[in-house]
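INFO  loader      accepted 1 record
INFO  loader      residues=272
INFO  predictor   begin
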Amino acid sequence: MKMRFLGIGLLTILLITASCGDYNKIVKSTDYEFKYKKAIEYYEYGEYVRSATLFRELVNIYRGTSRADKIYYYYAKSMIGQKDYLMAGHYFKSLVKEFPTSEYVEEAQFMIGYCSYLLSPKARLDQQVTQEAIDALQLYINLYPYSDRVEEANRLIDELVDKLVYKSYLSAKLYYDFEQYKAAVIALGNSLDKYPESKYREELKFMLLKSKYLLAEKSVVDKQSERYTNALDEYFSFIDEYPESDHRKEVDKFYEKASEILNYKEEDLNIN
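INFO  predictor   done
INFO  writer      dumping tokens
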């Protein structure tokens, strides 16, 4: 039994060695037609490192020929196989720019957005790439509205927008958590303005109301009246939208305290 496994192991080593030898010969070959065919074969067998190495050389060899767009395409796909989405996206962009009538342009246009989607970082990080992905996928939808990939492109855009919404929420909440209420009021308001349908809307509006109230409470006397009035306005906006909110008891206390300080009565505030 040991001899049998030893024999299989030796055979495997011999096959790998022979394969590496053949590949090295292909790399060194000046028969570019043969090299092109082998690059396609390596790609189809999922050997993306080898196919990419060959296609990288062939990009320059076949530049300006009728085969150039296909080599760009396969090189970009090989880079995706290696999860090098930045380089893949670069070559898909080059394909679209240099070969606008190529049969691969439609797919390349989609893949530009898809590569940026794959590069999109976690929500807490800078989201420039996320926005680039959204823009590229939207451009694809605009250019090819009847494509079978439109549904997927819309799904990816929705996912990316959700990330931007979450990023906006986290950024605004950070000021609130650090009790920087003046900055929080601005950031929370901006988040609500930019993403009015945010799934974090109730929480954002609550933090905005509380930030306005606490900002007024911590302000110098000369500014308190105006800021408590702003807090009251925010209170009515909040309860009008979320009358059954879990935060209702807390926000009602803000109202009571602000009304007492301002010496307001319900009829003065036009409460029904």
